[in-house]
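Hi R.,

Here's the chain you asked about this morning:
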Amino acid sequence: MTLDPQPLAPALAAAEAAGWTTVRLDLDGVRDKAGLMGRCGDALRLPEWVGGNWDALADALRDLSWLPLAAPAAGRLVAVTSWRAYAEARPGEWETFVEVLEEAVDFWRGSGGEPGFAVVLAEPEAGRGSDAGAPPRTPRLRRRRG
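And the predicted structure, written out as tokens:
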């Protein structure tokens, strides 16, 4: 996972060229944990048992057997977009969310032979959205809370 914001198009193009399945997780308008979990559920097509729980989200991202693939994929890339407003409105929740994503990336990196899993915090296209031109902010991680 990269915490340095990246342009979206090149990241998606590189992943798709490598045979990865890509998912865009757009956080535009998300202002609380319930909204974040709902958006994750919709974008990632999470099983209903995930609900609004950090640990369940972490478990689901370490066991991707529930994620349908049209064809065998070399890996999966989640591009998180429009994330700055949420990160600023709920810094503690944002840090926990980033920790969950990092743990999933680390898990799949160490799984050996399984498809990869990567996350990129994507910058909006130049001149678009409220994030345009804003300096990158890298969150500090803390231990996950309920």
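The radius of gyration is 15 Å.

Let me know if you need anything else.
M.
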